[in-house]
Amino acid sequence: MTDPVALYDDLEQRLRARIQPQPFSAAHNLRLERITDLLRPLGDPHRRLRVVHVGGTSGKGSTAALTEAILRHHGQRTGMHLSPHIQLVNERHQLDGRPAATTALAACWPAVEAAADRVAAASPFGAPSYFELQLALSLSLFSAQEVDAAVVEVGLGGTLDATNVIPAEVAVITNIGLDHTEILGDTPLKIATDKAGIIKPGQAVFSAATQPEVRAHLRERCQQHGARLHLLGAHIHLTRHADGSFDVALPDQTLTGLRTRMPGRFQADNAALALGAARAILGTLDPDATRAALRSVQLPGRVEVVQASPRVILDGAHNPDKIRSSAAQLARSPGRRIAVVALKAGKDAGSILPVVADHVDEIIVTRFRPKGLWKSVPTAALLALLPEATAIDDPDEAVEAALARAEPADTVWVTGSLYLIGDVRGRWFPRDERLRALEQR
Asked: Whole-model pTM?
């Protein structure tokens, strides 16, 4: 058998070679015609799947993973498409709650590659984007594996995101905050208008949005399309308990004594949406299976504790809302707190860094290694906003420095960008070992 590491390196190189030089914009990357043309020669796999489509500003990945776990614990064969990946491309393409084996992805890739070449040569909209290729690969994999249900996370926005060609039965819009404002708009309502573009006729729609104008817009969009809207706090009720457990009252069913493995008060909101979405597919939920599902989910790089002494938390919180939620969780950590931070170019560093500074004793600013179009804010620029920080350009060296400064009871918080998490996570989870383990299903 081909060495899975060599096979992965080849697949990753082929995918990275397809990264387009243009930044994301409605004129270039954000087109639905191109993904439609790409999927057609693949047999339109998206039309053969039952799909839960998950969008929103924060919590998309966690909500998607919780939904998938509930479906799987009820006996469904599942697929899940997430973005971005942390360490391995395989993380975007999941089967039954695990990243797909590289051999399974490599088996689907030749057809996707051939379709991409055909589109690049004939389409007036240009070659497919990197994200579109990843999505096509997921959908082809799910179709080939004949999954019972797939959970697909929106990449960016909603209306013109490539995933929006999928005729999903269920749509989830977790919440609305200020992120990607240069593309989606500079107010919650403008962003909501774009994200609500995933709502389609006849869907069951679930949202935890709190702003009155956003909720009004979601109601109007659902009414226009004959979709059924379920809002957290209006149609779904969440009761939190002092011991960290919570109850969720859905229309016609209440589940009690629930807990998530992922820490953070906001995970109960994500779980409530996941319960609603999964129930819309399944019809009813088994309480024991649901409890087990929620307790099983831990996404890489999302409030992930990878070391106990000193405690190390990897959390790619990359917008002000996520940073605030993560920082609130960190506030309960004992000892001193040391942050290692990198941000993607274009992020609101002026809003993010002060939140970090308010919750830690020491900050090391760094940068992640270039990822095609995606570049890190230079450490000098971060240091200009946060003069009391220490600047270390190399991300591995930055983590080493934080660990060296930490006492056993302290906490090292690595945050600001999922790309930073991907650069340093191999310290605890070596890449090649993970690739070989994925072949052992």
From this structure: 0.91
